[in-house]
Amino acid sequence: MRKYLAEMIGTMVLVLMGCGSAVFAGSMAGTVGAGVGTLGVALAFGLSVVAMAYTIGSISGCHINPAITLGVWMSGRMNNKDASMYMLFQVIGALLGSFILALLVSTGGFDGPTTTGSNTFDMGETAQAFIAEAVFTFIFVLVVLGATDEKGGAGNLAGLAIGLTLVLIHIVCIPITGTSVNPARSIGPALVEGGQALSQLWLFIVAPFLGAACSALVWKFFTAGRK
Q: Could you please report the per-residue DSSP string of 127-150?
């Protein structure tokens, strides 16, 4: 249970810090020099992963992302029970983070475009959004599998490598979908916010899982026959 709770807390922090940066500091219309912009939000997500990697990594491995859990499971590194429980507690953590953001918005001044940092895409751009989420999740999970590999991984630097990769992905993908590459990160905000985010949620579940599955297959090919 300790590792499941660690995944819940880690995912809560990711949503609270990453999505929170988009909600409160992503941009402030009419205020010169205010707001952190795309780079700031990207850094918030990446630094959240780095912080949690060195906090709960020794307890749960710090997946805090069902797509990563799927990739790890398909790679043969965890059993069915742990994989399903990780995903469940990751979603619970994302919901907790989203509820906290919604509470903060409802109890103070706020004029941003979203109350939870939910993922959406414009009408007519479903294909672009799907391709982006699948491809960037593929890259992200592949880096995770490589960086945490027991034989050739990055060791204590794995958390930093993974966090910086997430920053890079967000820089490119934020203008397209707001960047998910993490079904839990999308499920929590969408369930709390509703509307367009909820109606488009399927894409932010299917595309990341597809990308993660492809990563696992590619990594198994890379390491096939290795002693």
A: HHHHHHHHHHHHHHHHHHHHHT-T
CB 67 within 8 Å of CB 183: yes
CA distance 218 to 138: 10
For residue range 169-189, list pLDDT tens digits in order: 999 999 999 999 999 999 999
Residue 14's pLDDT band (boundaries 50, 70, 90)?
A: very high
pTM value is: 0.94
Return the biggest CA–CA distance within the chain. Answer: 60
Strand intervals (E) in 61-164: none
Please state whether 159 falls in left (phi above 0), alpha (psi between -120 and 50) or beta.
Answer: alpha
Strands (E), the chain: none
Inter-residue contact 14 to 64 (CB < 8 Å): yes
3 compared with 123, residue with greater pLDDT: 3
Q: What is the DSSP letter of 153?
A: S
Structure tokens at 130: 């799907």
Q: Which residue's entry shows tokens 């890259």?
A: 139
Burial of 119 (0-12, 13-18, 19+ CB in 10 A): buried
**Sign (positive or negative) of CA dihedral 8, 10, 15, 20:** positive
**CA 16/CA 93 separation, integer angstroms:** 10
